[in-house]
Amino acid sequence: MGETTGFLQWGRTGPTRRPVQIRLKDWKEVYQPFDSSLLNQQAGRCMDCGIPFCNNGCPLGNLIPDWNDLVYRGHWEEAIERLHATNNFPEFTGRLCPAPCESACVLGINQDPVSIKQVEVEIIDRAWSEGWVVPQIPSTKTGKRIAVIGSGPAGLAVAQQLTRAGHDVVVLERADRVGGLLRYGIPEFKMEKKHLDRRLEQMREEGTEFRVNADVGGAVDVEVLRASHDAIVLACGATSWRDLNVPGRELKGIHQAMEYLPIANKVQEGDFSDFAIDAKDKNVVIIGGGDTGADCLGTALRQGARQVLQLEIMPRPSDDRTSGNPWPQYAMVYKVSSAHEEGGERIYSVNTERFVDDGNGNVRALLIHEVEFVNGTFVKKEGTDQEIPADLVFLAMGFVGPEKGSWLDQLGVAFDERGNVARDASYQSNVPGVFVAGDMGRGQSLIVWAIAEGRACAAGVDTYLMGETSLPAPIPPTARPLV
Fold first, then answer.
1. pTM of the complete model
2. Which helix (H) or strand (E) holds 95?
3. Which residues contact 358 (CB under 8 A, 6 or more apart)?
4. For the chain, which residues make up each domain, given as ranges?
5. Does residue 114 surpass a pLDDT of 70?
6. CA dist 37 → 15, 43, 75, 76, 308 (Å)
7. Quick one: CATH architecture of 243-397?
8. Which tens digits make up the pLDDT trace of 40-70?
9. Would the pLDDT of 208 be above 90?
10. Cβ distance 67 to 54 under 8 Å?
11. Are 437 and 427 in contact (CB under 8 A)?
12. How far is the C-alpha of 71 from the C-alpha of 78, rounded, in Å?
């Protein structure tokens, strides 16, 4: 324990966001550098609990008290070793994870929890700057060939683990760049892609091969893929988006969030200079109150939207935990993200009844009404109809599972009752040698779960190929019956 009374001496301090009027003029990350003395205090606030609930709150089982203590004592190189012991990509989670570990922090029972995420990201950023993150090249090769389909966080985690175990791993990505949603779903202002590119270069030096524009079932033949590899890992994510089938859905100007966000990221990559879907001077409505909706909000504001409204069918969360959401559960409370701080308005407990035509096939407005949640269903509140203007509408209502396709039928994989690819306790599907990790088997979830599942799946693949494994399997698999 770094400082016995640290949690009594210092309060919680988080990073300071750059001024709104400045950060809206660029696409750089929103946070300013964090003061090293304040970071030392935050690490010193850790109580080193007898039962560290933060470890259990983190799907990766991160050794949080360990590296908090090491940071407080100034042992940074040892801290990154402890952090990397459970997490392949702390530069991603430190920026993008909603931090269930902080909700589970024992200090959070009656005070503000430790700023765990900030300590995490400072450890890995310092490790990169000091040159402590180097390729881990396997000393022996097994001769086994593995194909990983999908290059999001789950696919990258399983690929790195299996490469380090001595297998020959190729990652197939159907897009033109590697990274999945990390590349094209996460806006630059939340994570600059230099962090992703730096980690991918480490993986290449370790021996992982990446192929882009590799559309399995299209450019890549499924039968050839199976015949030329000893195992296949499906890590394509839950990319089948939820739609809103109401009158007027066919109007121009209505887009899925994942039709919008990748374009903005491609502009930042330099692919083209203009936005194909541009919110400049437009009235924008976002349907969906989650993180993806907030990403659309921040993107539209940077493009110069006239007005942005974000609609959510659920009631506004409370400012504090309710009796049904006690510690150490993830705190379902009202939060203000960096995008919400920048502008726009959130409207809760409303439902979209239909989209209104401008007479030329374009969306002009939405007809909405208030709802109440009664006996497990949403009921319209009569007399609350209103029309709100909209030149652009983005649907950010989540995802319903993996995209179904003929190539999955060719593989012969089974699906569970939720429409995800079914797997057993070792993350293996009903087809021998075909494994599944991340959202494709779990359903839409967090980046930290994707990395954890990738690591655990790698242990299952290694055991299948070699009869045993030394790779860690940090979490129990979320196995479902094969149907």
1. 0.95
2. helix 90-96
3. 364
4. 6-130, 145-239+400-466, 243-397
5. yes
6. 12, 10, 15, 14, 38
7. 3-Layer(bba) Sandwich (3.50)
8. 999 999 988 889 999 999 999 999 999 999 9
9. yes
10. no
11. yes
12. 9
Which two tokens mark 229?
Answer: 């590899």
Cβ 327 vs Cβ 108: under 8 Å: yes
pLDDT, position 274: 87
Indicate the residue type of 400.
Answer: V
Two tokens, residue 181: 């949603």
CA distance linking residue 161 with residue 152, whole number of Å? 14
CA 426-432-437 angle, to 5 degrees, is 45
CATH numeric code, 6-130: 1.10.1060.10
Whole-number Å distance between alpha carbons of 181 and 467 = 33
Using CA atoms in the order 31, 33, 36, 39, what is the torsion angle rounded to 10 degrees? 10
The whole-angstrom separation of Cα 92 and Cα 458 is: 19
Q: Do domains 6-130 and 243-397 have the same CATH topology?
A: no
Residue pair 157/60 in contact (Cβ under 8 Å)? The answer is: no
Return mean pLDDT, the chain.
95
User: Alpha-carbon distance 17 to 90, whole Å?
Assistant: 20
- In the chain, what is the greatest distance between 2 CA atoms, to the nearest angstrom? 71
Structure tokens at 161: 């683990």
The residue type at 238: A
φ, ψ (nearest 5 deg) of residue 185: -105, -30
Q: What top-level class would CATH report for the domain 145-239+400-466?
A: alpha beta
Angle at 269 between CA 265 and CA 273, to 5 degrees: 85
Q: Is the separation of the CB atoms in 2 and 44 below 8 Å?
A: yes
Q: Kindly state the tokens that stand for 73.
A: 């004592």
pLDDT tens digit string along 409-448?
Answer: 999 999 999 999 999 999 999 999 999 999 999 999 999 9
